[in-house]
Amino acid sequence: MAAGRFSLKIVVAVAALVAGFAILFGVGLRGSMVYYLTVGEFLDREGREDLGENFRVNGNVVEGSIVRTPGRLGAVFLMTDGSRRLKVHFDKETPDTFVDGSEVVVEGAMHDDGMFAAHTLLAKCPSKYESSARGQETLRNAAEKGAPRDAAPAR
Amino acid sequence: MAEFGTLCLLLGLATAGWAVVASFNGWLDRSGALVLSGERAIYATWGLVALAIGCLEYLIFTDRFDIEYVASYSNRALPAMYKVSALWAGQAGSILFWLFVLCSYAAVVVAMNRRRNRPLMPVVVTTLSSIALFFLLLVNFMARPFVGLSQVPIDGLGMNPQLQNPFMAIHPPALYTGYVGLTIPFAFAIAALATGQLSDTWFRTTRRFTILSWFVLGTGILLGGWWAYVELGWGGYWAWDPVENASLIPWLTATAFLHSVMIEERKRMLRVWNMSLVIMTFLLSILGTFITRSGVISSVHSFTRSDIGPMFAGFLGVSVIVSVGLLIHRLPLLQSEHRLDSFVSRESSFLFNNLLLVGAAFAVLWGTIFPIISEAVRGVKITVGPPFFNEIMVPITFGLLTLSAICPMIAWRRATPHRLIDKVRIPLGTGILAAAVLFAAGMRDGYALVAFSLCAFVVATTVMEFFWGTRARMKATGEPALGALWSLVDRNKRRYGGFIVHVGVMLIIVGITGSSAFKQEATAVLARGESFGLGRFALRFEDIVSRDDPNQEFLGARLAVIEGGRQVGTLEPGQNFYKAGQDPSSEIAIRSTLREDLYLILSGFDPQAGKVTLKAYLNPLIAWIWIGGGVLILGSWFAMLPDLRDRRREAEARLSAAESYATS
Hints:
The complex is a heterodimer of chains A (155) and B (664). Chain A is α+β, with helices and mostly antiparallel strands. Chain A is 29% helix and 30% strand. Chain A has 2 domains: 1-33; 35-154, CATH 2.40.50.140. Chain B is an alpha+beta fold and 664 residues long.
């Protein structure tokens, strides 16, 4: 769009709009950025205040670690990246796919009691949908790269 | 059968390749025979891909679990409807289906333009067949649907229970029909750029395809939201998930294009901008397909994930280079014929509408791909949460609402302020009145007040447009009111269809506002006979229910819905236990009225104590989102019907074509 084809008023209005966008963008982005880490990365970065308080952490549910209190929603469980473990507390209803061994992404903050208090939990079941060798391989890739498959959200 | 399918796809690769070569060379050499051969190759490719689809469906229906795809996404007990939709349950199948939709569009375009747009067609066919060729390469070498298994399982793994839902069965076809349809205006735009025939032909010819794809994509997005709402069980319908965003972004740019193309049509302005929008929309729809199918950004929807990433990146790169190169090459020919000279004019309000829509698209895109960018730049994945999207989208939506309320009343070229004020009085008054009434009724949520008031403003504008138009016609022709209204909309279906679409969008925004600003939720653990309250309602746990179906076993709780001391209904949330061995899935119970939805999830069951744990949501006005979707579809169909003007123009075109044929 060549200048001179538009009147000054319009150029000014467009500029104002774009500037408004930029401000909205910057403010919005700063307020909602969340680091997405593996369990190990999270434990290493803990205490670094420049990363903020809220984190998304990816790992697998340790077999047999899910503890539920009857009559209360949610669960306490351990999640692992294969070598290190993190104790997580989630107090909302868990998705159907949240079972032993499933890959989970939790979002929340470290609590004073040493547990990670999650306000969001995404889970992908240790899939029965992929059985072939190739399927297992993609599944392993998915686990390595830290992307949940078949995840169902719980909010 | 699988071998036959593989063969079809290989042959399809050859015919699509031939279509590219023949039509491109036919264009360069001005060889009519080559061009015709290229067009026939499009039909052949369509036929071969259709045969391959038929093969895959046949294999699914005959339970051929020696084929990996069939074994992975189907099983013996799967109902017929989901055996059909198993075709697009996995990656290979959905790419094949994408290809089929593209070839179908291409075949229709070729058939419709046998005698029209001849100078453009060779490049259109080259473009479409190049895209088809890329997807054929994917299904032949990367995501192969007919791969066999060395060990044949007794039964298939079955479809993910969450996908066994009528909405999920039709959501992907709707999305694909929308996404892929946007390649048609793109192909014509590329043809216009390549041939230098930059008159209005390219967008006039593809107008119906653009509207069709636009509203089908919109419908697909809404269906996806509906599916998430009734199936995923978190009480919401939109989570700013990458896959959802991927479909929203091209929809936003397509919306911008639908508006700004009217300026080009009338005023021959914003021409470079329109070309850029069409190219952008196409690239974003390919990016959307890629995000959906690759799970590259970890996402609720990533039911699949594979290594097709580099292929898509390469294809996107080539597309960007070719289309942007052509655009720059033709810049001198795309000069505007008019100056945008008034700040208060229809043209400038369309310009601002476009800036807002593209700004929204850019914001959603940025938020969506931010994890990839941050990982590439700083080595750590940073995600951007829903607050970012909400913060950006709320003010943009307010801006768009204001524009769509005022824009129809602003004159072309230059509006006189006092005339505008005269026209805007009644609609604006309606908007302010709506806010005052809601405030008096006790609504104190600022955002919701603004949103509802603006929606009332837009609807009032629309009603007044119909009213003024009808009155003017009655005066001019002396027709009775209803007759005048009909001939008014019949003469300009596009304008009035567009207004109906606006009303649909307003209803959707009312639904979104109501269900996000006034949502209530409660959790309760109940023994038999106990109840809990939510809003005006009380819910009493009556009994345990169980049902046995061939495919699954249902276990649920029956609750009485009590309003004002009177029972108004029962709800049965529960869990489905699948016999194919998948994990159980929650079955949500919803009591939907125009006023609000009561939404119940059974999240826990303690057989010893005989207690159930329930999660309940009260979502006000949510039904209006789906109703608005229906109105949007209606308006879009209406806008696509031929106008009197179109019919006359087409008749003239046919006549002049016949004359030139006769004289040559």
